[in-house]
Design goal:
The complex is a heterotrimer.
Chain A (H helix, E strand, L loop, with lengths): L4 H20 L3 H26 L7 H18 L4 H23 L4 H21 L1 H4 L12 E2 L2 E2 L3 H23 L2 H11 L1 H6 L4 H27 L9 H14 L4 H18 L6 H15 L4 H17 L1
Antiparallel strand pairs in A: 1-2
Helix pairs in contact in A: 1-7, 2-7, 2-10, 2-11, 2-12, 3-4, 3-5, 3-10, 4-10, 11-12
Chain B lengths: L1 H26 L7 E7 L6 H20 L8 E7 L4 H14 L4 E3 L4 H14 L3 E3 L14 E3 L4 H14 L4 E7 L2 H13 L6 E8 L7 H9 L4 E5 L4 H12 L5 E2 L7 H7 L7 E5 L14 H15 L5 H17 L6 H9 L4 E2 L4 E2 L14 E7 L2 E4 L2
Parallel strand pairs in B: 1-2, 1-3, 3-4, 4-5, 6-7, 6-8, 8-9
Antiparallel strand pairs in B: 10-13, 11-12, 13-14
Helix pairs in contact in B: 2-11, 3-4, 5-6, 8-9, 11-12
Chain C lengths: L1 H31 L6 H18 L4 H24 L7 H23 L15 E3 L2 E3 L1 H23 L1 H11 L1 H6 L4 H23 L10 H15 L4 H21 L5 H15 L14
Antiparallel strand pairs in C: 1-2
Helix pairs in contact in C: 1-5, 1-8, 1-9, 1-10, 2-3, 2-4, 2-8, 2-9, 3-8, 5-6, 5-8, 6-8, 9-10, 9-11, 10-11
Chain lengths: 318, 387, 291
């Protein structure tokens, strides 16, 4: 289905903003933060498709993030593959894992699904830590190469910024197309009422599995980009805490909202930087903000702030 | 949907412009008179017992240097960020120090994984870098810009193994923490065993937050080792000591320098008695003979630290203290030239520090040998020099 | 034989700890269908309060225990009032995130109040470890088991015999029906939180002498206690007992006969196993529910 003209304009505008920012900002630090936001957006986007649209919760997506990162690390360093070849191989591996994990797990629902994904995430994390001959163990994996494409080296902050955000824009378009297709409507049907959806002929288990795999692919892509950005990975970055952070990004940004993923990722990446001033109180403030946003804006920032805006508008009409 | 998209698009544009606004100072040049030195430590988080004293020691050292007039008339300014022990945050912190704060050199981080995460950036930026982390991988292979002040695991293991050999012990079991520190220790323990005539009967691990190791000890007991070597940082090794006492195992326990602090005795209580470990000399300053080259420096540091922060000194803080002083020594006369500073560090000889007496060279970016350690034994809740 | 017995004792020592934490999870789920991710932090608060009252303020044991439990219960009630009740139209996912935020918040508070160091307190009684067939068992472990059994029996009596307990169970089965017969559902939820927090406090109090207490002790122990609760059957008191002990024993034997590196994995492998084979847990007290 073709994208509507208005949407096209929005995406073109977004791409323009990215291009201008990349050109104007020279400080590697700021470029790096924005690049991190991009990677986190990919993570949030993937999980949003699963949680927001299909209504399934996953507390273990840090594992897929990690498999993406470790996958490319192992393939490029131990097996000397080119990173551009490692990418499809890693994605394929992740698809396999997601299938194997998804089939039994998605039969569960509610808390049980969350717990199943949690268990999976923890086991994968322990694997990263214990299988030291392959992953480098708790000491981490060094020496991941930078990305190059012909004459262009992506080792510079600016080029990597463009690379990551290029992927983000592509992912946005892919998700947008899915959402506005038959598949997307079927997904939302599952979200609103699985039994009813099944009653009208939606193949719920197959669709849930497909979305699960898709979300895993996004996470693995983010892992790939992360690994080739910092050249060093260790199990801590893909732990239970990482999984919770991804869920938080989705929920805060706004579920079932593609742009919400961007907002959630931005807020959660920038928040620790802003909270530096609080030093000792950082954890307290972080937890407090999480709770407050959930209590007062339970649909996430996107919907919540828009609601506030609209309500204010209505008041003025009175 | 269209209205929402438009509005959200406005949000995004606003967000990006906000970022640009914040970025605009970054687009301008910054060059000021005080010499800025960056520090990244695990001030909070599970390794805060390393990062917190290190941050404080760095501040103390800089205060002392500034009180003496600074470096060639330039005062030192510390810019310190918290990594929380997280490699990603360490990378962001280092990035900030290099691009936003334009520091002349970086001290820290506290842990090996965070150091390894930051190293590629430091190598690319060509900035002098002195880590306070223990891992050998940091200085092997040697990178011209990367140094470290923490004593190496190689020497710690050698010190323990020397003692074991002297006691004619042949069969041991090792139990290590499942983190970077424990892994590095395990690697060294296994690598050096044969050279000292030791066989490792069993190698167990435990999690950093585990509260019971009786199962591992039961397994170890079956192998009937003559000694147990434990490698970790508090509180795990204290739990292990308590478990050994609880199970009534009569096997001598050796710990790593990771527990070289009064906290270990506090946590292990009566189970600490009889435990032997290598430690930097700061722990037993009063027990050292007056002829020891480090004694004066150690006593001064302990007194100054206690006066300023009202808490007792720790060996970990010493790494940062040494790093700053070595850096300051190299900065004299270098006039802010990073390559000159780097060369200055590399050629530092006979620097009497807290962690030991440093002798750097192009092939040794740690500068410490086995003499940085002394073996101690805990007797009646107090430290005693062994031998 | 000695080894086998020692593994068993290690297992029931840890198992009792998991069971006592699992009870708090199960209890709350039983009454409100909510999983409190911050429960591990309530346990932490209980332990740290004991450290302060016994270690720093040198209060005698019984008042210190009572005070600690009171503090944690108060914290639980405040949490319910401010963070749970104020949510309009609570979806489960929202409540989960709130409890996650609460766990981070409480951990931060713990870090500020007690610092980052670890602490320990002496066991309740100064008995030397018991020697049974060559294997050693700490006296404190027996305390934990005994107290746990007392709690389990007490809760059972509360739910089945007292009016309040029956009202709470009724509220859990159907809020509407309970409301029709005059049971104040808001009060029931508050009570459930208070009771669950108190359970967490008790857990913290009795495990303080055997664990190293620090501000971040709650995370892993909470997760494992939760696995134990699911293993035994979420919502079932005896399930918490079975789940906890089973987990502890399997962990200990796993270390002994397989590998110590995979100790943590035991809990989660068991979790996955029970979810795929019998999601309700060993004692399927509740039906597998949808979001």
């Amino acid at each position: 289905m073709r994208l509507m003209t208005r949407t096209r304009i929005v995406y073109a505008l977004f791409a323009a903003v990215i291009a201008v920012s990349g050109w104007a900002i020279n400080s590697p630090y700021y470029l790096q933060i924005l690049t991190f936001i991009g990677i986190n957006t990919l993570l949030a986007l993937g999980l949003n498709m699963l949680m927001g649209y299909a209504g399934q919760i996953s507390l273990g997506h840090g594992a897929f993030y990690g498999i993406g990162a470790y996958g490319t690390a192992i393939l490029t360093v131990h097996w000397h593959l080119s990173p551009w070849l490692a990418l499809p191989v890693t994605i394929f591996a992740v698809i396999l894992v997601a299938f194997i994990v998804g089939i039994p797990t998605l039969k569960l629902s509610g808390y049980y699904l969350g717990m199943g994904t949690l268990g999976f995430g923890m086991i994968v994390n322990i694997l990263f830590r214990e299988w030291s001959s392959v992953t480098g163990g708790a000491s981490g994996f060094v020496g991941i190469p930078s990305l190059e494409l012909g004459p262009i080296s992506f080792a510079s902050a600016k080029n990597y910024f463009y690379l990551v955000w290029g992927f983000v824009i592509l992912s946005f378009i892919v998700c947008h197309r899915i959402i506005h297709s038959r598949v997307g409507r079927a997904l939302r049907a599952i979200h609103d009422g699985e039994k009813a959806a099944a009653a009208v002929g939606v193949d719920t288990s197959r669709l849930k599995l497909q979305v699960f795999v898709l979300s895993a692919v996004f996470s693995a892509l983010a892992g790939f980009l992360y690994a080739h950005m910092v050249f060093f990975i260790s199990p801590e970055s893909f732990s239970f805490i990482a999984s919770i952070r991804i869920v938080t990004m989705v929920v805060i940004g706004g579920m079932a909202s593609v742009w919400g993923s961007l907002l959630g990722a931005s807020v959660l990446t920038l928040l620790p930087e802003w909270l530096h001033a609080f030093s000792e109180f950082e954890m307290v403030v972080y937890g407090l903000i999480l709770m407050l946003i959930m209590i007062f804006l339970p649909k996430g920032l996107t919907r919540g702030l828009l609601d506030m805006y609209e309500r204010a508008g209505k008041k003025n009409d009175r | 949907m269209t209205i929402t998209t438009k509005r959200t698009a406005i949000w995004i544009i606003t967000l990006v412009f906000a970022c640009l606004l914040i970025a605009s100072p970054a687009l301008s040049e910054t060059a000021k008179a005080p010499y800025k030195i960056g520090g990244i430590f695990a001030v909070t988080g599970p390794s805060s017992m390393l990062g917190d004293p290190e941050k404080k020691s760095m501040e103390l050292a800089i205060e002392q240097i500034n009180a003496a007039g600074g470096i060639d008339g330039h005062l030192l300014e510390a810019v310190i960020y918290d990594t929380e022990g997280d490699p990603s945050k360490a990378v962001m912190g280092a990035s900030k120090l290099i691009s936003k704060d334009n520091v002349m050199a970086i001290i820290g981080p506290s842990l090996t994984p965070t150091t390894l995460a930051v190293m590629p950036m430091v190598q690319k930026a060509q900035i002098p870098f002195i880590s306070c982390a223990a891992g050998n991988k940091i200085v092997q292979p040697i990178d011209p810009w990367v140094f470290k002040t923490a004593q190496s695991d190689i020497s710690a293991v050698a010190a323990i193994y020397d003692t074991l050999k002297a006691k004619n012990i042949k069969k041991i079991s090792i139990i290590t923490v499942a983190n970077a520190f424990g892994e590095s220790g395990k690697e060294q323990l296994e690598a050096q065993a044969a050279a000292y005539g030791l066989t490792i009967a069993s190698a167990e691990t435990f999690g950093a937050t585990d509260t019971d190791m009786t199962a591992q000890l039961t397994k170890i007991r079956q192998d009937k080792p003559e000694a147990i070597v434990c490698w970790g940082t508090n509180p795990g090794p204290a739990v292990l000591a308590k478990n050994i006492q609880q199970l009534g195992l009569n096997i001598p326990l050796y710990q790593s320098h990771g527990v070289a602090s009064p906290k270990f005795i506090e946590l292990a209580g009566s189970a600490a008695d009889g435990v032997m470990l290598p430690t930097g000399k700061i722990l037993v300053t009063d027990l050292l003979p007056d002829t020891d080259p480090q004694k004066k420096a150690l006593a001064a540091y302990a007194a100054d630290y206690k006066k300023k922060f009202d808490t007792p000194v720790s060996g970990f803080g010493g790494y940062a203290y040494d790093a700053v002083n070595i850096l300051a020594g190299a900065m004299k006369g270098a006039d802010g030239d990073k390559e000159k500073i780097r060369a200055g560090i590399e050629n530092t000889k006979n620097h009497v520090g807290i962690s030991g007496v440093f002798n750097f060279s192009p092939t040794d970016h740690n500068g410490l040998g086995q003499d940085a350690f002394v073996m101690v034994k805990i007797v009646n809740g107090k430290w005693e020099l062994l031998k | 034989m000695q080894e086998f017995l020692q593994y068993f004792f290690s297992g029931i020592t840890n198992g009792a700890i998991y069971a006592v934490i699992a009870i708090g999870f199960s209890m709350l789920y039983n009454s409100t269908e909510l999983i409190n991710f911050a429960h591990g932090e309530f346990v932490m608060l209980g332990s740290m309060c004991m450290i302060t009252f016994v270690g720093a303020m040198h209060l005698p044991l019984v008042p210190a225990i009572a005070l600690s439990i009171a503090c944690v219960t108060a914290a639980g009630l405040i949490f319910e009032r401010l963070a749970i009740r104020t949510v309009k139209n609570p979806e489960h996912i929202v409540l989960i995130i709130i409890t996650v935020g609460a766990s981070i918040f409480l951990r931060g508070v713990g870090m500020i109040i007690w610092g980052k160091d670890a602490f320990s307190i002496p066991p309740f009684s100064s008995h030397p470890p018991l020697d049974i067939g060559g294997a050693r068992l700490l006296a404190q472990s027996l305390w934990i088991i005994v107290i746990f059994l007392l709690i389990a029996v007490g809760l059972q009596v509360f739910y089945k015999k007292t009016l309040t307990g029956k009202a709470m169970e009724a509220n859990a089965i159907s809020k509407r029906a309970a409301w029709i017969v005059g049971i104040p559902s808001r009060l029931m939820v508050t009570l459930a939180f208070g009771l669950s927090a108190a359970m967490g406090g008790v857990a913290g109090v009795i495990i303080a002498p055997v664990t190293m207490c620090s501000y971040d002790m709650g995370t892993m122990i909470g997760l494992k206690g939760f696995c134990a609760a699911m293993l035994g059957g979420l919502g079932s008191l005896w399930g918490a007992l079975i789940g906890g002990f089973l987990l502890g024993i399997l962990e200990a034997f796993g270390v002994g006969f397989v590998s110590s590196g995979l100790k943590d994995a035991t809990a989660f492998l068991l979790l996955l196993f029970i979810l795929y084979v019998r999601p309700g847990g060993i004692i399927s007290a509740v039906d597998v529910k949808r979001f």
